[in-house]
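As noted in the main text, all predictions were made from sequence alone. Below is one such record, for Leader peptidase (Prepilin peptidase)/N-methyltransferase.
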Amino acid sequence: MRSIPSWTVRALPAAVLPLLLCPLLPVDRVPILVVLVCFGVPLAVVDLRCRRLPDVLTLPAYPVVAAVVVATGADVVRAAACALLCFGANLIVHRRHPDSLGGGDVKLSGWLGAALGTVGWQALPVAAALSSLVTLSLRLSPTQRGPTVAHGPGLVAGAWLAVAFVP
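Prediction:
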């Protein structure tokens, strides 16, 4: 009998806990939070294991997030502007310091920005700070291997927390 890979045991709470919290959160935010979990957890797991955010997981989130933005009646212009702002800011960092932020992180930040835009402009700095804290905690983790750290899990966690709890 094959054993369950340890990463699946660690990823399960990351997928289940946010979904369990959804009934306690504002109803209008639940759809975008579910999208964040469905796309974000697999991306975070892949990034932690392989230091990659593959297009096959990152790019399909764009039309799904756009559909949820429209379906929930969120401000489409604000969501698009937040997406462009997050994408653009991360693209600038990637171009100036490609070793510190990968192209997958840039692509991920675009649809996360749109998700944050469903809440409001105030979610952007909160998510940025939370993302940095999560990434720093990963860097300081005793299980950290190599000179680089996966930033995707921090981006996803920061966005989820900001969408869930920023008023």
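The chain has one domain: 27-46+53-165. The chain is about 70% helix and 0% strand. These features were considered when defining construct boundaries for the mutagenesis experiments described in Section 2.9.
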